[in-house]
Amino acid sequence: MPEYNAPFCDRLARTTGIVVVSITYRFAPRCTFPAAHDDVDDIFVWLLEHAEEEFNADPTLLTVSGLSAGANLALAASLKAKNKSGGSSVLDAVTFYALDARMNPTFAPLQDLPKEMLFVIPTIDILLHEQLQMIDRLQQEIKTTQQRAERRVEKAMFEGRLHGWDQRAYNPLDAESLEESEDKFI
To answer: For 23-79, how does the pLDDT look when each residue is reduced to its tens digit (9 = 90+)?
Structure first.
């Protein structure tokens, strides 16, 4: 829910001066697959078409982020949102433990993903292996492409942290590592 991340969104906007749009989508189990994906895809289309007039923001600088399921949805939408040259309309992505069956990130083509990606990963997470595998594959592909200077995939590991540790609403006690993860994002 957007209100859970309001403190981070506020800090991000104040620190960087960027426009931050925090969204929501329909949740399972009440709304089944692909409802959430459809909602986020629709929001992407709207943002790309209206960012300039509604927010005075450059749509070519779109960066996405998300936590858990939101990270999955952000990356999946970035694969679908294409620019005129056929690449992703998303410039950067910062995800907090992302994997998604719809986009099958283990096999997502490098050229379809954002040019810069930061994966924030707790080490006690059922998705740890898959995330590290995806990052390794992407970093290896970058080394073998002509786009080395244009692409970057990084990870920020948080030892001893559980999936969801960085969501303020659930864990207000771990302010130090929460702030560290936000600093890496910014």
So the answer is: 899 988 899 988 998 999 999 889 888 989 999 988 888 888 887 778 788 888 887
Kind and range of the H or E run holding 16: helix 6-16
Report DSSP letters for 66-128, one per residue: EETHHHHHHHHHHHH-B-TTSSBS--EEEEES---TTT-TTT--GGGS-SEEEEEEEEE-TTH
- Written as six digits, the tokens of 112 are 């379809």
Convert the pLDDT of each residue in 74-129 to its tens digit. Answer: 888 887 776 555 555 666 666 655 555 455 555 777 887 888 888 888 888 888 88
Residue type for 49, please? E
Closest CA relative to residue 81, chosen from 34, 37, 125: 37
Q: Is the dihedral of CA 97, 2, 78, 148 positive or negative?
A: negative
Helices then strands, counting H and E runs in the chain, come out as 5, 4
